[in-house]
Fold Epidermal growth factor receptor pathway substrate 15 like 1.
Amino acid sequence: MLVSPLQVWDLSDIDKDGHLDRDEFAVAMHLVYRALEKEPVPSALPPSLIPPSKRKKTVFPGAVPVLPASPPPKDSLRSTPSHGSVSSLNSTGSLSPKHSLKQTQPTVNWVVPVADKMRFDEIFLKTDLDLDGYVSGQEVKEIFMHSGLTQNLLAHIWALADTRQTGKLSKDQFALAMYFIQQKVSKGIDPPQVLSPDMVPPSERGTPGPVSGAGHALGVLTSLPTACHQVALKYSLEQDIREKEEAIRQKTSEVQELQNDLDRETSSLQELEAQKQDAQDRLDEMDQQKAKLRDMLSDVRQKCQDETQMISSLKTQIQSQESDLKSQEDDLNRAKSELNRLQQEETQLEQSIQAGRVQLETIIKSLKSTQDEINQARSKLSQLHESRQEAHRSLEQYDQVLDGAHGASLTDLANLSEGVSLAERGSFGAMVKVE
């Protein structure tokens, strides 16, 4: 398909100033490349092909994302020749020296202070997780949002810092964006609408300027379809290389994330194993304590059984002793009763003797008769003593009967008590007669 150079020029010269700047030249090269691929050249430039620098700056609320999440699409990258491609095109001599690209610019100081630049570089190194020398919008989103600025303002700052419209920021571009944010947050200074020369990062200075000269450009577009195809092919290969490098960086980042996950899981596993070992040690210790407690419990139970048996034996002994004590108390009571009775008999005997003495005094003159009576009294007294001894023997037999009460009958006890009573009555009767 034949390409009309004038049509391509008219579509590419968006601002109609008779010159092609860097973005407009990229649009022209894109249209030529599309024509070489048998695609029709549009009659009017569609909005998707208008470079960002040529678009209106009006921002509608909610229509602009906070930060670019990824680089531009593949087609857009293919349609925009790199600086190397432009340089290659210039090296063919198609453009006259009068309209050649500018290679040098006067030195201008940068607005970002050195101290702030060093601090921003440290933040950049911590944020650049994939170590590709660039940070994406996703990587700096948290840092930018932490400033508290609106999404539209952050998007504008990103557009100013992303001078090459790559969707990523280099170290100097990131420092410039952080400088604008710092100025707004600390001093309330709004970022400019366009970058002044002192705001352009040093690494971005010396970029080729606009292309001018409609006549020469028309000649280039007319006579270089083969060169454009070669440039496009070279750019396509370079883009493929960049895509593969990006894929490698992504894979490297994924591998690094997996390695980090593995390290974290390994650390967690080690901690769990340590906890398991600690729990096992504690379990073993508790098992040992449990075994000791079981032994102690067995000993205590054995001692309890021994003590229970001893208590039972002691209770039996106490009951036996209580029974013996009761029997002894009964014997003691009986002995006391017998003693009282004997004491009474002794008192009666003493009274009888006293009466006899009184009578003896009264009848002392009748010594013979009295002597006989005394002899009789002595004989009776002897009998009394014998009766007393007999009573003692009866008491002893009674005690023996009481001690052997299990074998003796109540009849024997009654007979024995009756015999003792008869003996006592006989003794007292004899004494009465003597008196």
Observations:
- The beta strands are 19-20, 135-136, 168-169, 211-212.
- Confidence is low (pLDDT under 50) at residues 57-105, 208-228.
- The longest strand covers residues 19-20.
- Residues 3-51 form a domain with the Recoverin; domain 1 fold (CATH 1.10.238.10).
